[in-house]
From TrEMBL, chains A, B:
Domain Hydrogen maturase F dimerization: 177-275
Lineage, opening ranks: Bacteria, Pseudomonadati, Bacteroidota, Bacteroidia, Marinilabiliales
GO molecular function: GTP binding
GO biological process: tRNA methylation; tRNA wobble uridine modification
Protein name: [FeFe] hydrogenase H-cluster maturation GTPase HydF
Organism: Maribellus comscasis
Length: 409, 409
């Protein structure tokens, strides 16, 4: 399912004809497994390129390559350029720094006047001379910039981080946790086991957020323990649209939910809501490649996390060991510090990061991707090791396809 | 419905034959509108008196009046007295102070050894001499005591506060918010309106606590906005045992809930859970006695309360004014400070106090009662002024009877 154009983050790419706009775009594109289709335009019309840009998701690049510059924004081209500014959510100025000048300053001025967030990309490989003064010049005016070498494909990961950092929060944060899977006037069933770790008199945040997400979108839900699920389902004269369970009750809930009712877990919902479900599905599937002695990093977002304490430190290590059939080298981290060097790990398993904003989780996904380390989360790991991955992914066709592509026989 | 003996707080009253045990009991009894029935015993057996003691609720007084003392716990009576200690949750030593001595110290020693909370009551009117040294003597050993004059009925309110303060938390805190009205394996519907005051992505505490209370007791619930209630109810092939709404949606929910389904509000549940529903029902009914110019105190538990801000300061004052048909003098307070002098007020209207422990709310109920000022809460005020008091009280027969007694025609 392609995202409608209206939901895509519109990234306007500006710069002189020889600045390297196309090579930057190509470098981003070649790294992503995604379909890039060009929408034809006349030579002076900007080219629009819809794509799935990791980690931002669906974006629309507006490539102003067709617009000539000749140093300054002349009267004739002002109208056309203004139209692009009108629909730009995030601006990118590409420069080779050698002819950085009046034209670039006019672009910056325009972004500032319109309060459009923007970044500058210097294509290092095109820069002549060594001791250029980029850093001091742009740092002093607090302009965010990235240094890339499109031809050598270096700096692209830093550019992704900068795009992530600068993109408006509305585009980073997903609009819904699960209400899009349920629909107005329809019901979900949320299965909330109460074990001795559950804080007295409360529900944990992902559960509360899910209930609220449904109410905000004119849906409703039945909240029930796993033991009473069968009884609760028998009360419906029309099946609920979705059953969501805490991962810890996965097997019982899978058994008690009729096959025609879609079923998933809070963790899988949060992989999508707070991270990138497709990337994390790939991550979970890499469990199969783990071998005795491999290094695995388990990352908990909260530095003090009374709930689920033993999921990350006890249960998941135990399951993984059983699954792999040998001892793994498991490191645990907590909080906002992420190791600089992660390339030794064969897998990173993250908590749902329900207390973080999505930007932080996506930033880790880029870092893992750059280091070539698959990343997944607790719930996906549990679902995979319990053998109910396929059923739990059914509400998410794109993610399910990633799985089916590998196990298509 | 009488509380079973097992759920009553067992208060053992100890003291010498002439210490005033009976007059203390009578003073407490005469102030409470409650049935006191004596369970007959032999002269040397303790008399058990079940009663509704404001504000503790159902208690069982074990009156040791039949046990002779003669100064010390002689061998012959030790066995009988130990039996009483065995079932005492809260001990009361009554003394006239003149013969305070070895006997009382033995009682105190026994309470301490058994870790039974206890208080001492000095019946002032029986104390001979003015400059007695009670305070310094008992303060030094940190023993809680009350000074009463049972014959003049003074100090009884202070005694109640001391009993409240000393009673074990298990007896102060009610075991359930609403699960007792629903039952295991059965469903409630919780109606949660989402207005602009609702904090983003969250539910307010009483809603979360209610969901959790149901799960803890093997019940379950459907959570729905008032707009989708009708749709949600139509989805079930068996009516829920109870519909609970936020007071703000009372009229719509009353209209959309079939008459045979019991319906109440979170506020009414919390009047019972955090306060004393019967007292607060009386308080709400006193709205009818308000006249133009009367003073009303509106009390909010939280000192900073972003939600419901305008309920206490705007909506309730407006409703009351409309109901009374004239201007009232309305004072507002917030937080833990309660005015010393409240006897000028004709009514106190409290928030649900969901962030407090019940002890604090009960303490205010005693203070209001002592000052002769009726006390109610927001939700009961709203229900009363909207004319749906009777329906909202149906799940609570004792409270409903208080209302029907007055409006029996």
């Amino acid at each position: 399912m392609r995202a409608p154009k209206t939901f895509r983050l519109h990234i306007g790419i500006f710069g002189r004809r020889n600045a390297g706009k196309s090579s930057i775009l190509n470098a981003l594109t070649q790294q992503d497994v995604s379909i890039v289709s060009e929408i034809a335009g006349t030579t002076t019309d900007p080219v629009e390129k819809p794509m799935e840009l990791l980690p931002l998701g669906p974006v629309l690049f507006i490539d102003t390559a067709g617009i000539d510059d000749e140093g300054v924004l002349g009267e004739k081209r002002i109208q056309k350029t203004l139209q692009i500014f009108d629909r730009t959510d995030l601006g990118v100025i590409v420069s080779n720094f050698n002819d950085w000048g009046e034209f670039e300053h006019q672009l910056i001025e325009e972004f500032k006047n319109r309060e459009i967030p923007f970044i500058v990309v210097f294509n290092k490989s095109d820069i002549h001379g060594e001791n250029i003064d980029i850093e001091s010049q742009l740092d002093s005016v607090k302009i965010r910039y990235a240094l890339t070498s499109a031809t050598k494909s270096t700096g692209i990961s830093g550019l992704r981080q900068l795009l992530l950092k600068t993109a408006p929060a509305d585009f980073i944060n997903r609009p819904t946790i699960l209400a899009d899977l349920v629909g107005p006037g329809e019901a979900a069933v949320l299965v909330v086991p109460i074990d001795k770790e559950a804080p007295k008199g409360r529900l944990i945040l992902p559960q509360v957020q899910s209930i609220r997400d449904l109410l905000d979108n004119d849906s409703f839900c039945t909240v029930v323990k796993e033991r009473e699920l069968r009884e609760a389902l028998s009360l419906f004269n029309k099946p609920p649209k979705l059953v969501v369970t805490d991962s810890q009750a996965f097997l019982k809930v899978a058994a008690d939910t009729p096959a025609q009712i879609p079923m998933t877990s809070f963790s899988i919902l949060f992989a999508r809501f707070q991270g990138d479900l497709n990337e994390m599905v790939k991550g979970a599937m890499s469990i199969d490649k783990l071998k005795t002695g491999d290094k695995v990093l388990i990352a908990e977002a909260c530095s003090h996390h009374p709930i689920g304490e033993d999921i990350g430190t006890v249960k998941i290590p135990r399951w993984l060991t059983q699954y792999v059939g040998g001892k793994l080298q498991i490191d645990s981290i907590r909080g906002h510090d992420f190791p600089k060097n992660i390339s030794d790990y064969k897998l990173i398993i993250h908590c749902g990061a329900c207390m973080w904003n999505r930007r932080e989780m996506l930033s880790r996904i880029i870092k893992a991707k750059q280091a070539g380390v698959p990343l997944t989360n607790y719930g996906l790991t549990i679902a995979y090791s319990l053998g109910i991955f396929e059923r739990a992914l059914q509400p998410f066709p794109a993610a399910l396809n990633i799985y089916k592509e590998v196990y298509k026989d």
